[in-house]
Amino acid sequence: MNWDVIEVEPAGPLALKVQFADGTRGRVVFEQSHLTGVFAALKDLAVFKKAHIVGGAVTWPGNVDLAPDAMHQAILAQGEWILR
Questions:
Q1: Fold for domain 5-83?
Q2: Among 14, 59, 68, 78, who pairs with 54 as Cys (CB 3.0-4.6 Å)?
Q3: Domain ranges of the chain
């Protein structure tokens, strides 16, 4: 799919640079207020930096992942996806 993530890399604390299969590039930024529930583990920056791609989605250890279609839509519209 066009929204499959093909590259991900940390871009500072709680931020990632991503590229999609269709060439779209942008940033994903987590605000502290979003780091609850399944995302609480990402408060540990060592864990956050372990972001990788599985099946076109940004994923972390413990089966934590982000919806690539929602990420793609936000980045197309605003250049970044801020998770609040």
A1: NE0471 N-terminal domain-like (3.30.2020)
A2: 59
A3: 5-83
Give me 54's structure tokens. 């599985």
Could you write out the DSSP letters of every residue in 29-59?
Answer: EE-GGG--GGGGGGGSHHHHTT-EEETTEEE
Residues 6 or more apart whose CB falls under 8 angstroms from that of 46 comprise: none
pTM attached to this predicted model: 0.94
pLDDT tens string 20-67:
999 999 999 999 999 999 999 999 999 999 999 999 999 999 999 999
Q: Residue 61 CA to chain centroid, in angstroms?
A: 13
